[in-house]
């Protein structure tokens, strides 16, 4: 089961990382204003990080460290979800629900990554 968790997490991260490059605009909105540089640079950096994490999860020798790094990554990007929720607070209800729904989603993502450390 932990191997399956690692491989499915790799697929999720590879998909998300690719999306950062294919359609970066929605991700730019997640970047807190307090970060230096441009939102697009952070979007590309986080996409590259997701792709690197996905690759690391696929290799048994680096799987445990990559899974721990993925858990840390999910914690690190949480402020982006808070930023999105704040910026979307006046949008129509379906968009607000999406933004607010992302907040608790980080908890199972961290747990998923932690379970992949046992692979």
TrEMBL record:
Keywords tagged on the record: Membrane, Signal, Transmembrane, Transmembrane helix
Residues that span the membrane, as ranges: 42-61, 68-88
Membrane topology: Multi-pass membrane protein
Compartment(s) where it occurs, according to its Swiss-Prot or TrEMBL record: Membrane
Signal peptide boundaries: 1-21
InterPro entries: DoxX (IPR032808)
Keyword Membrane: yes
Record has Transmembrane helix as a keyword: yes
Annotated protein name in UniProt: DoxX family protein
Organism: Streptacidiphilus monticola
């Amino acid at each position: 089961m932990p191997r399956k968790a690692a491989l499915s997490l790799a697929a999720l991260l590879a998909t998300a990382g690719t999306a950062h490059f294919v359609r970066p605009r929605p991700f730019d909105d997640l970047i807190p204003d307090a970060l230096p540089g441009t939102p697009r640079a952070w979007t590309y950096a986080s996409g590259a990080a997701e792709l690197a994490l996905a690759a690391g999860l696929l290799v048994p020798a680096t799987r445990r460290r990559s899974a721990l790094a993925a858990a840390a990554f999910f914690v690190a990007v949480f402020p982006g979800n808070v930023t999105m929720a704040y910026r979307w607070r006046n949008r129509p209800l379906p968009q607000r629900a999406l933004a607010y729904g992302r907040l608790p989603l980080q908890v199972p993502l961290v747990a998923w990554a932690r379970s992949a450390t046992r692979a």
